[in-house]
Amino acid sequence: MNALLRKVAAALPEAWRLHFRRHFAWRWFRCSYSSWAEARAASSGYDDSAVLARVLAATRKVRAGSASWERDGWAFDSPELNLPLVSALRLAAEECGGKLDVVDFGGSLGSTWWQHRAALDKMAAVRWHVVEQPHYVAIADEFSNHVLTFHQSIDEALKTCEPMFVLFSSVLPYVEDPMALLAKAVSRGFRHIVIDRTPLVRKQGGRLAVQFTPSSLGGGSYPVWLFARDELLAPLRTNYALVDEWPAIDRLDPDVEHKGFHFRRLTGARSTQ
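^ thats the sequence. predicted structure below, dont judge the formating
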């Protein structure tokens, strides 16, 4: 959408803006599919080596101080905090006596830690354990330190820390079996579970779609789960209580809202590992 169209859209009433976006904005989520394999066959994928190279270059800029933070391989100059996440981390740190181990599933080369490291330094003795794909972990040594470490699985990370806090930020929509991943977090007994930047359909019932990314943002297409709220949170209902819920930063589709959730484990709930 060009600058003129954006100005026209901003001047319209809300109902008209939704109509405008449905008919003129980029369509991020398309069609519905009955299986992950079917959605993969309908998508082109993306150049993973190019994505990793972009993430690596951006993270090096952040480490060198020439950028403030990085997300999805894009570097940003001005500091920005995810305040609901910071609040969840602060609450967890207070409950854990000032010491906090965070398992960041799908955390790239430490994007969220780099973005919030100054705030984290003020609140607790934090250790940040990123769980990522092997090709990310293989190049992550240059960023590892006494706070930030990298692992290939949740269980590998838990060999070095306690199950205090697990973060799933823009992750669950892009794995084949998100419910199994949530169930694993529950079974490992994490005290706090945060789900952030996760798409929920506004109408009844979720669906499996294909996400198309504009070429200006790297291009490519890949399967994506668009969740029904109750279905997404069902694995947490028995052992966890909802502490907070917030609108996430993503604004991709007028019929999809991205949300964040903070859950705390109920007293007396047992792990099943």
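Residues 15-24 have pLDDT under 50 and may be disordered.
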